[in-house]
């Protein structure tokens, strides 16, 4: 039995129609059924059921992401009963997988580890958040990285100049690494030589990032480095423009890295030090309602200020919408996308 999931998750087969009988079917059929359940039950990253970039709607399901679907009470119960029956069956390996899927259905933190497939075949593992350590938030993939990944796929030439010169790309606060690994895929499809450095500052996040890089063939173009934005000092006036040319990255990427007020000046200092002369910093900021401070306004104020040393400026701003495919659009998130460069 082959179960075919429609790229648009809304049209995927429901469990009551798709699942085989456990008594009569072979292990191979049960394996296929478990794969199907994994595809419909692993939740999509919140706010990314579909993404609207410049009026074009992309269903992430159509580009290889998970195809999770909303199940009504009957279908959920049917699925839980089917998995419980498998759990009690003589097929040990399948029973173990059934128990993991039951955990996923009871909430992703209970499931611990979730592995998803994204566009261009990038595979990313999220690990459970440590509830006692909020700073491990980079162990999960955030909607902004799915949005920026899709933008790079759709408009690769606006991110990467191409040509035969080796591009040096840096990602700040890389988390699970989706953006860097997608950048590696896009650059390879453009036949553009590149070295990508994915950075973060948290031990557990860096460990998971390393694992994700090793999971993907494209990871061979991605290095991992510890980098803490808070350690960069503000640009100083006593450095003449000729001396202040430490920047060596042609492209810098960052998604959801300005979620607390001190982050914006820290990221500014880091960019001021590391951005190459004709380079661009691509920054995606979710416009979360009700959070302390207004991160978008703060980004614009800080990056447009004229202080000591060379000046940076926001060269382009655009709005991107993620999610909202559900009935009431409740998971919709608006993002501000910035291109920042030297004046
Ligand atoms: C909300 S998560 C976003 C992760 C990833 N960019 C994404 O969109 O999925 C913020 C990331 O910034 C990292 N981070 C927070 N403060 C940092 C700092 N001072 N220096 C470097 N990374 C930091 C966190 O470890 C985490 O990976």
Structural overview:
The protein is built from 11 helices and 11 strands. The strands form 2 sheets. Strands 2-1-10-11-9-8-5-6-7 form a 9-stranded mixed β-sheet, with helices on both faces. Helices cover 33% and strands 22% of the residues. Residues 1-11 and 62-66 have low confidence and may be disordered. It folds into 2 domains: 9-49 and 66-112, no CATH class; 128-342, Rossmann fold, CATH 3.40.50. With 343 residues, it is an alpha/beta fold. The longest helix has 15 residues, at 27-41. Strand 6 (194-200), helix 9 (203-215) and strand 7 (222-226) form a beta-alpha-beta unit. 41% of the residues are buried. Bound molecules: S-adenosylmethionine (SAM). The site of S-adenosylmethionine has 22 residues, from helix 6.
SSE topology sketch:
Blueprint: H1 15-18, H2 27-41, E1 50-53, E2 56-59, H3 73-87, H4 92-105, H5 108-111, E3 114-117, E4 123-126, H6 143-154, H7 156-159, E5 167-172, H8 178-189, E6 194-200, H9 203-215, E7 222-226, E8 249-255, H10 263-274, E9 275-286, H11 295-303, E10 312-322, E11 333-342
Parallel strand pairs: 5-6, 5-8, 6-7, 8-9
Antiparallel strand pairs: 1-2, 1-10, 3-4, 9-11, 10-11
């Amino acid at each position: 039995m082959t179960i075919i999931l429609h790229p648009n998750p809304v049209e995927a087969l429901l469990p009551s129609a798709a699942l085989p009988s456990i008594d009569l079917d072979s292990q191979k059929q049960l394996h296929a059924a478990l794969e199907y359940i994994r595809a419909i039950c692993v939740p999509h990253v919140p706010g990314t059921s579909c993404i609207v970039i410049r009026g074009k709607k992309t269903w992430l399901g159509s580009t290889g992401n998970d195809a999770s679907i909303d199940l009504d009470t009957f279908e959920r119960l049917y699925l839980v009963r089917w998995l419980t029956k498998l759990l009690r069956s003589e097929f040990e390996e399948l029973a173990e997988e059934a128990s993991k899927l039951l955990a996923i259905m009871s909430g992703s933190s209970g499931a611990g580890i979730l592995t998803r497939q994204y566009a261009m075949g990038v595979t990313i593992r999220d690990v459970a958040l440590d509830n006692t350590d909020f700073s491990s938030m980079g162990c999960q993939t955030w909607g902004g990285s799915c949005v920026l990944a899709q933008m790079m796929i759709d408009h690769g030439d606006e991110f990467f100049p191409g040509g035969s010169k080796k591009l040096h790309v840096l990602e700040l606060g890389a988390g699970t690494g989706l953006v860097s690994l997608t950048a590696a895929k896009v650059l390879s499809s453009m036949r553009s030589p590149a070295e990508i450095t994915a950075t973060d500052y948290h031990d557990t996040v860096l460990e998971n990032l390393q694992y994700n890089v090793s999971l993907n063939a494209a990871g061979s173009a991605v290095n991992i480095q510890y980098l803490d934005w808070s350690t960069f000092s503000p640009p100083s006036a006593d450095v003449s423009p000729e001396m202040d040319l430490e920047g060596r990255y042609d492209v810098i990427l960052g998604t959801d890295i300005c979620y607390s007020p001190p982050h914006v000046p820290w990221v500014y200092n880091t960019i001021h030090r590391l951005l190459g002369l004709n380079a661009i910093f691509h920054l995606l900021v979710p416009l979360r309602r009700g959070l302390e401070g207004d991160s978008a306004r703060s980004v614009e104020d800080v990056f447009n200020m004229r202080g000591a040393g060379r000046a940076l400026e926001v060269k382009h701003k655009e709005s991107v919408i993620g999610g909202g495919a559900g009935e009431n659009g409740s998971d919709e998130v608006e993002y501000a996308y910035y291109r920042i460069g030297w004046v």
